[in-house]
Amino acid sequence: MLKFLENLFTFFGMFIGIFIAYPFFALVPAIFFGVIYYKGKNNVVGVTALLWFLYSIYETLNFLRITCSGECNIRVDLLFISPILMVMTARSLFQTIRGVSLKKLH
C-alpha cells in the first residue's frame, strides 16, 4: 500500500509539473469540473473546480514572478497544495463516475 501511495504522489508530482511550466493548462480541470458542477450541482465538484481555478491564478502569478521574488525553484507551497488538489480531484472524479453509473441503474 505504501508503494502505491508513493507511486501515486510521484505521478501527481509529474502531473503538477505541467501546470508549473504552463499555468494556463490548470484551467482545463477547472473548466471540466465547472461543467460537471453546473450539470449536477455537486458541491464537492464545485469546490474542486474553484480550487483548480484559484490554483491556475496562483501559478500564473508565480510564472510571471509577481508572487515570488525570483527564487521560485524551491516550491514548499506545493507540499500543501498538491495533496489537496489530488484528494479533491480524485474524490470529484469518483463521485462523478459513481453518479453517472447510479443514474444508469435507475
Summarize the structure.
By secondary structure, the protein is mainly alpha-helical.
Describe this structure in words.
This protein is an all-alpha fold and 106 residues long. The chain contains four helices and no strands.
Top keywords for this entry?
106 residues; mainly alpha
Describe the main β-sheet briefly. none
User: What do the pLDDT scores average to?
Assistant: 81
- Tell me the β content: under 5%
Query: How many E strands?
Result: 0
Rg result: 15 Å
Distance between the termini: 35 Å
Helix content: over 70%
Total count of helical runs of at least 4 residues:
4
User: In sequence order, what are the helices and strands, one letter per element?
Assistant: HHHH
Q: Identify low-pLDDT runs.
A: none
- Described by the principal axes of the CA atoms, the overall outline is flat
- Please identify the structural class as seen in this structure: mainly alpha
Topology (elements, then pairings):
Elements: H1 2-21, H2 27-40, H3 43-63, H4 77-105
